[in-house]
Design a protein that fits this description.
The chain is an alpha/beta fold and 389 residues long. It contains 14 helices and ten strands. The longest helix is centred in the middle third of the chain and has 17 residues. The structure holds acetyl coenzyme *A and 2-oxoglutaric acid. Its EC number is 2.3.3.-.
Length: 389
């Protein structure tokens, strides 16, 4: 049966692409919480973890246990909720951090280290060999305690590529379960993401993770391209929150995976409600034009669009509001046309003849010259007004 929830990008049929082998690791509770001013409560973190699990996210990064005692307690509590998702937490390349992860009963510990010249010189004041040996020590310790390990190269995208390959290969000798390419400062483009993941994949046989930041507004696109180049684990945050300009957004990525690759394993109908919760818990309003979950993602005013939508919404909507738990909203304003207005008026339960409709559209156009947008109540008042003439 033809799919009616969304238009699949048929151009993908012309691209030589094997089916994607991916999983999502949502990092809202860790990198998302690093957004300035954001600190989730225990209840909020648990609620978000439950929601992420119900969407079908495979891995939830629950926090960074050494940050505080309560952070550690919450990570441990989330680990023991019995979720389907695997629970992961962050650790520096420090034995105490790994011990904290072990105490939290997580499935996966993400042990990170930066090996770029800038970070070695200005952050650690150490040689690459020194920090690297700290990382391998921490990995060995975690593995000895039965944890799955992600070895994350922070600032990987400004690290010499040969150094990166050597580090990942050495980590592979310790049987790490994932290696992570972190685009910590968001420098990647789709082309360079594809190149970097492909280069790493030529030599490293451990599943690759991609962790993209949004400094150039390309985090979601880069994450998708990384998956197309063979990355397994894709990092996201709800509403794309995270350090500075944020991370790849969960809702954008899940819908892109569906439209571009037909991946329908995630329950996208929950995306709007999780997004609203995130707004409330973080105190960060989402831009009205944010893809998928923005207030205007399914709001239409232009006459030519609305007249077509009234007949078939797919004319101007890539996917249905229902697919992502949203709602369509047809509004009147400066750009309203007669056919659109007639449809909206009828939907409100009114019938106007042609003269009344012409009078109403003139009123709408005049009114929006001075005041942007017309509320539903105001519109109904205007309809009754033209009817009474
Ligand atoms: C790219 C990322 O997102 S990385 C994660 C960023 N997240 C955070 O920073 C979480 C919030 N941070 C915190 O609460 C604190 O910084 C803590 C608890 C992590 C550490 O606190 P403190 O003990 O007070 O250390 P402080 O923050 O002053 O310095 C960090 C230390 O960790 C070291 N460090 C940083 N990253 C790493 C690493 N990957 N591996 C080993 N050591 C590291 C630094 O070099 C510094 O060491 P130094 O004390 O010998 O100079
Ligand atoms: O790659 C990872 O798993 C995490 C690294 C990270 O948070 C970053 O560098 O921004």
């Amino acid at each position: 049966m033809a799919n009616t929830d969304y238009s699949k990008n048929e151009l993908m049929n012309f691209i030589d692409q094997s089916p994607l082998d991916i999983e999502i690791c949502d990092v809202t509770l860790r990198d998302g919480e690093q957004t300035p001013g954001v600190a989730f409560t225990r209840d909020e973190k648990i609620d978000l973890a439950l929601e992420l699990d119900s969407i079908g996210v495979e891995v939830i990064e629950a926090g960074f246990p050494v940050v505080s005692t309560s952070e550690k307690d919450i990570v441990k509590e989330i680990s023991n909720l019995g979720l389907d998702a695997s629970i992961c937490c962050l650790a520096r390349s420090v034995i105490d951090d790994v011990d904290a992860a072990i105490d939290c009963d997580v499935d996966i510990v993400s042990i990170f280290i930066a090996m770029s010249d800038l970070h070695l010189k200005f952050k650690y004041h150490k040689s690459c060999a020194d920090v690297f040996s700290c990382a391998m020590g921490a990995i060995e310790h975690a593995k000895d305690h039965g944890l799955k390990v992600r070895f994350a190269a922070e600032d990987a995208t400004r690290t010499n590529i040969e150094t990166l390959k050597r580090a990942f290969l050495a980590a592979e000798d310790y049987h790490v379960d994932y290696v992570s390419i972190a685009d910590t400062i968001g420098i990647l483009s789709p082309a360079t993401t594809h190149y970097l993941v492909s280069e790493i994949k030529k030599v490293v046989h451990t599943p690759i993770c991609i962790h993209c930041h949004n400094d150039l507004g390309m985090a979601t696109a880069n994450t998708l391209v990384a998956a197309e180049a063979g990355a397994k684990q894709l990092h996201t945050t709800i509403n794309g929150i995270g350090e500075r300009a944020g991370n790849a957004s969960l809702e954008e990525l899940l819908v892109a995976l569906r439209v571009q690759h037909g991946i329908e394993t995630y329950d996208t109908t929950k995306l709007n409600s999780i997004s609203r919760k995130l707004e409330e818990y973080s105190g960060l309003p989402t831009a009205v034009n944010k893809a998928v979950v923005g207030k205007y993602a399914f709001t239409h005013e232009s006459g030519i669009h609305v007249m077509a939508i009234l007949e078939e919404p797919r004319t101007y909507e890539l996917f249905t509001p229902e697919m992502v738990g949203g709602k369509r909203n047809l509004v009147v304003g400066k750009h309203t046309g007669k056919k659109a207005l007639k449809g909206i008026v009828n939907d409100l339960g009114y019938e106007l003849d042609n003269d009344e409709l012409c009078e109403l559209i003139n009123k709408v156009k005049n009114c929006t010259e001075v005041k942007k947008g017309i509320s539903r109540e105001r519109l109904e008042e205007m309809i009754r007004n033209v009817q009474s003439h």
